[in-house]
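user: Kindly work through both lines:
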Amino acid sequence: MILDLKIWPEQFAKLSLQAKPFDVRHEPMPARPGDVVRFREWSPDHRDYSGRVIYAQIRYQERSDDFPPEFEIPRGVVVSHLALVVPDAIVGEDQGQGLIARP
């Protein structure tokens, strides 16, 4: 499954540089480990998508209840740990195939 999610420019930059290998969302999070997320950069100034996208595969997820209390993670939050992937030009990405892990 490929899920489209909106992401703001600052977070998009961190994800693209692999400086932020995770994403934090409120539950319910429709994606599960193994799914691919297409992050679409959202421009809050223009109130529209910029056209830039990043693909990432969810490696594993942790819910707020999984963290010790001292981490102070708000209830109802899912942390998805990500690995960037690139679409394979030969196989269509919309069929959920043709995605390879970036080294």
